[in-house]
Amino acid sequence: MQSRRSCQMLIGIGCLLASLAVAAGAFGAHMLKSVLDPPMLTVFETAARYQMYHALGIIAAGLAGRIFDRPQTARAGWCFAAGVLLFCGSLYGVSLLGIRWLGAVTPVGGLAFIAGWILFGWSIWRETVSRGVE
Fold first, then answer.
1. pLDDT grade, residue 22 (50/70/90)?
2. First to last CA, the chain
3. CA-wise closest residue to 48 among 34, 27, 31
4. pLDDT surpassing 90 at residue 42
C-alpha cells in the first residue's frame, strides 16, 4: 500500500516539475535573455532541461512502480526528485542569484540522478528476470 501511494505521489510531483520546467524554459527564453550574460543563461537552460528530463523520469518511475509493484522503482523516482532539487536548484541559484558556492552542490544532485537511473534500470531488469520475459 505504501509503495502504491509513493508511486502516485511521484506521478503528481513529476507532472508538477514538468510544468515548472516548461515555465522556466519560457522564462529563460523570453525574460532572461536581456538580463543574464550568455554563460549564466546557459546554466539556467541546463537546469530547466535537466529538470524536464528528470520530471519525465519521475513520472516513468511512478508508473513503472504501479505496473510492476516494485518499490525500487519508487526509490529511483525519489532519487530523481532529490537530483532535481540539488542539481537544478543549485544551477538556478547560481544563474539567477549569483550564489557561486551552490555550484559545489550540483555534483551531488548529478550523483542522485545517476543513482536513480541505475536503480530504475536494475529494478526493471530484475522484474524482467523474475517474470522470465525475454
1. very high
2. 29
3. 27
4. yes
Please compute the mean of the pLDDT values over residues 85-94 and round it to a whole number. 98
Provide the sign of the torsion angle of the four alpha carbons 62, 68, 69, 70, taken in this order: negative
**Which cell numbers in the block locate residue 7?**
508511486
The answer to whether 25 and 48 are in contact (CB under 8 A) is: yes
Res 4: pLDDT: 81
Q: What is the distance, to the nearest Å, from the Cα of residue 78 to the centroid of all Cα atoms in its chain?
A: 9
Alpha helices in 34-99 (DSSP H): 38-68, 71-83, 89-92
Nearest to 77 by CA among 110, 120, 106: 120
SS3 state of residue 99: coil
Task: Give CA–CA dist 92/120, Å, rounded.
Answer: 26
- Return d(Cα 80, Cα 54) in angstroms, integer: 6
Query: SS3 of 107, please?
Result: helix
For 66-77, write each residue's pLDDT tens digit: 888 877 889 999
